[in-house]
Amino acid sequence: MALIEITGLGRSFTAGDQEVTVLDGVDLSIEAGEMVAIIGQSGSGKSTLMNILGCLDRPSRGSYRFDGQDVAAMSDLELAELRRDHFGFIFQRYQLMPDLDAVGNVEIPAIYRGDPRRARRQRARKLLTRLGLGDRLGNRPGALSGGQQQRVSVARALINGGEVILADEPTGALDTQSSAELMALLRELHAEGHTVIIVTHDPTIAASADRVVEISDGAITKDTRKGPAPEPRRISKTPPTGTGIGASLDRFREATRMALWSMAAHKLRSFLTMLGIIIGITSVVSMVALGNGSQQKVLENITNIGTSTIDIRPGTGFGDRRPNRVQTLVGSDADALEGQPFAASVSPEVSTTANVIHGATTASAQLKGVSSGYFQLGAYSLIEGATFTQADVETRAQVAVLDEDAADTFFANENPIGQRVLIGRIPLQVIGVVKSSGTSFGPQSIRIFTPWSTAMVRITGGETVDSISVQVPDDYDMEQAEQEITRILTRRHGTVDFFLTNTDTIRETIQSTSKTLTYLISAIAVISLVVGGIGVMNIMLVSVTERTREIGIRKAVGARRSDITEQFLIEAVLVCLVGGALGVALAFGFGALMGVISPDTRLVYSVGTIGAAFASAMMIGVVFGYLPARSAARLDPVVALTRE
Ligand code: ADP
Ligand code: MG
């Protein structure tokens, strides 16, 4: 049986609602090692026949047996392997990849066969050198003449053995000299044992073949042979040199390399694809860093205050707007708690607005009666003099500590320490000046601090206090202390008209608030990532359309569906990963910028977030790259090749 056996073959296309029959009742058998020219006028169906011979297209009717196997029964994968291992295509317009150099173009079929890089590149160089392109190995097609490009495509057809060489109008775009050279080359290959099938409309080209098959209107009209039918002879196939895991790994590496090539060759497209991912990742990483940073900062401030303080306030909670009307927290409540085992110290706090006079200056100030420990809490730092002591509290000493604003108001040009201010008719001696250590928002009244006992007994004369702070000894359980306080005060008041806070509850509140914020920010970030992913998918889909010809070439030289899917998926994932890396870099840049603009802001980058950002970038690549990859892989090779 002949190598190629075609009987009753037909091919029809549906154009609109019409069926066009291009080939009908074609019988043809070609022996291994023959050199055949198929000649006919333009439109007679030569290319259609050639595409069927090369398994780029399937017949509508009739049978095609290659080497005894029925091609119609073969799966897509088997056809791809048949093309890859037995056929070598030469096209009229060369069909080379513009971004790859000569060696890169020639080695493609061998990549899909899984040959190791070194071996196949060496073979590619040898073939190119043999075809007279030894000094053009690194040139891209754009830097080669037509004849040279066609020789590159001959080398590509030969790299996997090229048992059957199919050339569709190979000289169609070449000048006379290059045409003659190419035909000599094809004859030489025929002499070496390759089966050569040439399609042409030019009788002089056809004349160099041993056998000429004429085709007209989709049917064979004449089949002439110079001399007797040759003995079938097959060349020994170049066996694949790589198999198994190593070969798949190599193919994966090759696909990655190709993806990088194509990204580098289309920088703007790649960048636009990445943009969504970059924005998404930047916002996730910096927002989470910002959230973590501010949370950490607030928590540190609380830690400075210390954990062993319980504050008692009137009302039912911070949201209660009645505390001024709930007049139940009184100085004697503090006395009742004093001396209890859970109370290392008890200090009420009162606050009132008072007219303060010094010399000719009168100003309204906020007068705060506090304990001696108040200034150790970290909200204020001493800048001059001293703060008052426990002894001052016990003796209701008439001393005052001013805040900076108060000091400026009353003692613009003199040292305030040792001076006197009058609250109503009560004189207080200034012993110190403090400065608020936090940042304050909006205008604030000037402040004067005095021992709480002095404020209650000598100034307000009132009974109610704004709050009572209880310092719990370090070895006393906070919860138990809270229970004791609640028990004692409930017995005194007859009802629970007060509430307790300690720094732990504040810490918890802040942590849960910032957790909510983190979720919110993460949700926003996830949305922008999804939007970015859809962007990736869109551009990948467009790029599939734009790259149909590339896909067609790859399929013609033996790429399987899985090879194409792999390539496009790797591209999508790489785009997303590079986008992710740029996003992380940008987030750090944002952090550096924030450090300059607002040094108080703290950003805490977490390895977890960055890891998650990369993982999601990769996921997006896989998820949104899958559809374009699949539609690329499913493209019909003929359709892809002929689409412009
Ligand atoms: P040749 O290569 O001999 O010039 P082709 O084989 O390319 O001719 O085409 C033969 C005829 O089949 C032409 O009339 C062409 O319009 C038609 N044809 C080829 N491919 C298709 C297709 N995919 N759909 C419809 N008509 C087609
Ligand atoms: Mg044609």
Automatic annotation (TrEMBL):
Compartments, record wording: Cell inner membrane
Primary subcellular site in the record, as a coarse category: membrane
Signal peptide location: none
Database matches in SMART domains: AAA
TM stretches of this protein: 271-291, 517-544, 568-597, 603-627
Gene3D superfamilies: P-loop containing nucleotide triphosphate hydrolases
Record PANTHER family: MACROLIDE EXPORT ATP-BINDING_PERMEASE PROTEIN MACB, MEMBRANE COMPONENT OF TRANSPORTER-RELATED
Protein name: Pyoverdine export ATP-binding/permease protein PvdT
Annotated source species: Donghicola mangrovi
GN (gene name): macB
